[in-house]
Amino acid sequence: MKIVSACLMGCECRYDQKDNRVSEIEQLVKDGKAIPVCPEQLGGLSTPRNPAEIVGGDGFDVLDGKARVIDNEGNDVTGAFLQGARQALLMAQTVQATEAILKERSPSCGSTSIYDGTFSRTKQKGVGVTAALLLRHGISVRSEESLD
């Protein structure tokens, strides 16, 4: 069993209330092989919501208290991102997921790159908060971009 970012199966749960639908991921969910999750919604954030980026590191740094997740208006939303990551992990563990396919560049779900915290669309190497927590618990994480 896998978990997948809900936006990748067509849920309009991105910060801008859009999706990032990928037909292969939608089919995994239809076939009962994947469970969709949106960590940001699970953490209590609304849709739509202000875009957010990790400032001061990546998801591992957020888990370790060394970085924060800040939205584009300067609000600290770290707590919601941590709560959402914990809920996504609970869902993954409940269905005994061994893999997650997550939305690249997301501050929650990025698996190899995230935005750098300047809101300039500049990417940096690193993982999102949920990706980091899943990795720390032995769940492999990859990007939807790896499906190509």
From TrEMBL:
Pfam families: 2-thiour_desulf. PANTHER family: HYPOTHETICAL CYTOSOLIC PROTEIN, INNER MEMBRANE PROTEIN. This is Uncharacterized protein. It comes from Aneurinibacillus danicus.
